[in-house]
Amino acid sequence: MADTVSYVQYETYEGGSPEAERLVFEKLARDLMRVQLRNKSSGGAQRVQRAFHAKRVLGVENARLRFNDDLPPALTQGYAQPGAEYAALVRLSNASGIPGSDVSPDMRGIAVRVEVSSEETHDLLAANFPVSHARNAREFVAFAKAMAGARTPWQKAFGLLVKLPLAVGWATATRMRRNVQAAARHTVGSLARETYWSRGAYLWGDAGPVRYQLRPAPGGAPAPRPDRHDPDHLRHELAERLAAADVEFDLCVQRFVDEKRTPVEDGATEWRESDAPVVPVARLTLPRQDITTAEAASAARRIEQQAFNPWHTTEDFRPLGNLNRARKAAYQASAAHRLGTRFRAEEPLRNTVLGAPLRAVFTALNRYVPWHRLPLNAGLLNLVALRQVLRRHNLIDTEIPEAPPKAVPVPETVDERARTARSYDGSNTDLSAPRMGATGATFGRNLKPVYRPDLFDTPNPVTVARELLHRRAFQPATSLNILAAAWIQFQVHDWVNHQRYSLAERSIEVPLPPGSTWYNTPGGPAENVMRIAENRGLERPGKPPVLFTNTTSPWWDGSEVYGGDEPTARSLREPDGAKLRLEDGHLPMGSNGIPLTGFNENWWLGLSVIHTLFAREHNAVCDALHKEYPKMSAEQVYQTARLVVSALIAKIHTVEWTPAILATKAIDISLHTNWEGPPNNWLHKLGLWLVESHSLTGIPKTLPDHHNVPFSLTEDFVTVYRMHPLLPDDYELREHHFGQRLEALSFNDLQGGAAEALARKTGLTDTLYSLGIAHPGAVTLHNYPRALTRFERDGEIIDLSVVDLVRSRRRGVPRYNDFLAGLHKPRLTRFAEVSADPDTAALLKDVYRDVDEIDTVVGLFAESPPQGFGFSDTAFRIFILMASRRIQSDRFLTVDFRPEIYTPLGMDWVARNGMNSVILRHCPELAAMLPRDASAFAPWRPVLPVRGSGAGS
């Protein structure tokens, strides 16, 4: 096999490196999808067509490619062996992206897929002109954009004479126009009598670069004169020709001589036969057949579902040159767009034009007046503008790109099961990028990482935690109940999880303040350092270790209930059934006393009741589906119920939990707009129509949109969701009939293995009631649960408040002041600007040397939040960016959120239900206690104990 060195010498990467070039290609791929949409609207097509070669003239599956017996030894490489014969698919087409008449001026093309084996194919693509109109990918896409949607002669002339020169310059446009016009003027009477050139260079094993041609084999009937009155002349001519005889082409190659005469990077320069002789190597045969039969039509339709790409080959035969390298990403995007696995929505011109000044106005205004102090409609419009700014500047892709491109021996196909059901590990949620958001994908970034090993222990994180985070006296969040605290942990377990080494494998040593000691393991010795198990990161030579993988999938797929892999998911189900296993209505118990469920780390009573509730909800959906659709299999019922429950969880979080913790009118309207579209307010609708019309329907009715960055959740998102202060240290369990106290407990009494036994003893109804009437802690300084400051986990004793600080520093999350600036807020110059409370500002000054050292978590907790907010406005900026992204990137919450996938019953279930109805379905006795005009996360009505009954003792 040819090694990398043997062919990289022929190539020069735009931007100086494969990685830089790849970024250019990704933008060009998006541009081609935009071209497809323009062509669709202009061509009157009901669906997206190919960006080029949209009209198929012929498609056959029974062609053969046979290499010559006298194949030269130097060209005997890989699958190219003397006498070797392979099956092939062939597609002949007109080059335009808009299907038109066969007699219109146009170029023609051929695509051949050589099927060597089930593990190896080779796609050969060529056009009937010896050179490309474009030297490189930029020119290629510029031409496509200039001609997008052009059908009439004057539209084509405007594209060639005005749009193209503006894009590439007059001289380049003239050369491109000359090539295109020369090719299009060529009269084509039969596609069987045309010569097709690859135009770009390809590796041919150890023989080095070649360009190939497909020439009509000697003999055969000459091409007739075109019938100018027949728009399908070329197809009809081929039908007659194939009905009478085989159609044959000779596959020929020209070998590389030198970069001047046979350039690799320049697709617009011809390799002259006088410099590089043409050598026949194989014959392609389209056998005699009737292409007008139903069987032939079926084969042609199957070929239309194929995605031809020159990168469907082996590394020995990989494409070479800038134009060819761009084709991998571009053709993949174009094919996925055409086949409905990747999406592109055009922004209306009015939104494009008005969006920029609107963002500029609000950016300037927010320096003096924050969004939450503006009148309601202005504040709502401000939030739209802010989200647009964050989408443009605060989504950073951390996945290591494929650069340079790699060959794909067998074209990837979509797993048909994944079209209608969520996968176990999150893969195939985006069918065009199967590993996007799957377990093991990297955490993204909203801000560029700041990796400062010299500041890991400055100031000492133990001192910071003890002085600023540890709870002194419980500070309640009186607008919420403890179910709100359990809910967010339930959600975070669905979205994010970093893998850790064991303490013995690899640990971080945090020095303790003078005179302090710490027991790092149960029964271990006192030490003068606090040891914390280190995260497993991706090692990249020469780069800071700030890249980590997510061991769960970040999609809203209910993996905390259902599991993140198939063995776990199947083990949680009833044997041969659709329901989840329950024991008398409770989660099945594991051998360690912790229930069996999708994700059961950091287990406590609050998680137990939420998990139990949604396991029961799954089973209720299964019963309803089975009754409504008795012919559905158990697997179909299970997968549909999972879709329904996952979407219901997403809805509850969007329109109930979030407005509960961010209790303002603007947020309530915004979150409901995200899910179901704006309220019936003409001013609000007009604002969205002018600046972000996609929001007029609610995200579930839009197309998936990753905003040009593959979906992931981010390290910054993990940081702002450190909401441990929500957990109280002390709890009361009460029964719901008379309000009688059952037990008073500490957090340690209801976490870990003790939680499930307590949940079963108390019962789901009374446990929900007990948590529903009690307040969680406020997310602020000096309110970190005492129980979590000396907490046993996985054989180590940790202070979780210290761990939060250490993790953020070592993962490269910027410190608070840099965090503010990165989220487009003014930098701070004084401690008094962090918090309106002078005592807090003074304490911050005692702990930190200057404001630039303040830890992000500390700054977020210290910040004075907007009225009604349960956490800071800075954390909220990450939230408004990522909250809508979790919905908009997910096809199961957008284009595939439809009755055909969910069933009509499933869609109705999501529409009609919320947290209150879920609770009442499984615990109807709680109807009188739930809030009348608020979500189930607001405080419930407590039942007052009856005097003299012993209640409340």
From TrEMBL:
Source taxon at top rank: Bacteria
CDD domains with a match to the protein in the record: PIOX_like (cd09818)
Region feature (Disordered): 418-438
Domain Catalase core: 79-344
SUPFAM superfamilies reported in the protein's UniProt record: Heme-dependent catalase-like (SSF56634), Heme-dependent peroxidases (SSF48113)
Entry cofactors: Ca(2+)
InterPro entries: A_dioxygenase (IPR034815), Catalase_core (IPR011614), Catalase_sf (IPR020835), Haem_peroxidase_animal (IPR019791), Haem_peroxidase_sf (IPR010255), Haem_peroxidase_sf_animal (IPR037120), Oxylipin_biosynth_metab (IPR050783)
Signal peptide interval: none
Keyword annotations of the record: Dioxygenase, Fatty acid biosynthesis, Fatty acid metabolism, Heme, Iron, Lipid biosynthesis, Lipid metabolism, Metal-binding, Oxidoreductase, Oxylipin biosynthesis, Peroxidase, Plant defense
Record protein name field: Catalase core domain-containing protein
Native species: Streptomyces olivaceiscleroticus
